[in-house]
Amino acid sequence: MLRQDRSVRFLLVLIAFLLGANLFARVHQDRTAQAAGIPDSGAQMQAQIDQLTQLNAKMDKLQGFLESGKLRVEIPEPKAAK
Asked: Three-state DSSP class for 57?
């Protein structure tokens, strides 16, 4: 009976430790998200979508410039060695 009692106490202490670690991780995660400036995950996703939209517009401009044929690449002649 004494061995079972020790095992149960050990398991209870282990569970309590894991719950405490989980609580610490959640509190730390909340502080990190708030420190980033956007505490709402929906607002974070919307900011990402806005940035991707801007990136897509820039890529469309670049693709249009490349397809227009206005891009010229000039390679200078190498200098003669002395």
From this structure: helix
